[in-house]
Amino acid sequence: MDWKFLEGLLSGVNKYSTVFGRIWLSVVFVFRVMVYVVAAERVWSDDQAHFDCNTLQPGCKNICYDYFFPISHIRLWALQLIFVTCPSFMVVLHVSYREERERKYQAKHGADRHLYDNPGQKHGGLWYTYLISLLLKTAFEITFLYLLHSIYDSFKLPRKVQCDVSPCPNLVDCYISRPTEKTIFTYFMVGASVLCVVLNICEIFYLITIRLVTLKKRGLVHTSSIMKVRRNLD
């Protein structure tokens, strides 16, 4: 997978993000993408080859591996990273749409006329797009954490599993390669995912708070203007 392509796309999101969004982006690249590319892929590279079972029955080893590992941790994390980063592109696309409208507006009315004060400013429809992207990222993170835990019953990998699935002749003991190291990486990736969820929730509350404060100020200004007009009429 070409993670540099993903990095280039997300770099454009950074300039439209809040401080929580920038921290989230740093966590994604430093503690998730970098760890995934540099270390995690290598740890799971020999996963099936070193999955040993105490039987020579043809097909038993492969069937047991597929039974206990229907999807590899590494592939599940790759899907998770793709899903949690895709909603950020909604913001980039919305800003691009605004910039294109701004360009057409200036071409029609002159370069000194502006449709938006700042196309990247989070107000109006862009504010809702940004909020929806945060909600989607949070939902994807929680969903994949649930899937990881439900598929393997725990975030901890056991040293030994027992399998009696056909064509195994009886109850077979199978041994996972480097279970302690894989458990450490699993807890690390889960912790980074939980941190991203916390940052997303903080950013959601931050956006809503700023929105409410802005609306309150506008309401006070509007009320003040009405009172001033009434005093002039009196």
From TrEMBL:
Entry membrane topology: Multi-pass membrane protein
InterPro entries associated with the record: Connexin, Connexin_CCC, Connexin_CS, Connexin_N, Connexin_N_sf
Subcellular location: Cell junction, Gap junction; Cell membrane
Segments forming domain Connexin N-terminal: 42-75
GO cellular component: a single term: plasma membrane
Keywords linked to the UniProt accession: Cell junction, Cell membrane, Gap junction, Membrane, Transmembrane, Transmembrane helix
Regions that span the bilayer: 20-39, 77-97, 127-148, 184-208
Domain (Connexin cysteine-rich) ranges: 140-207
Function according to Swiss-Prot or TrEMBL: One gap junction consists of a cluster of closely packed pairs of transmembrane channels, the connexons, through which materials of low MW diffuse from one cell to a neighboring cell.
UniProt subunit comment: A connexon is composed of a hexamer of connexins.
Family listed: Belongs to the connexin family.
Name of the protein this chain belongs to: Gap junction protein
Record organism: Pagothenia borchgrevinki
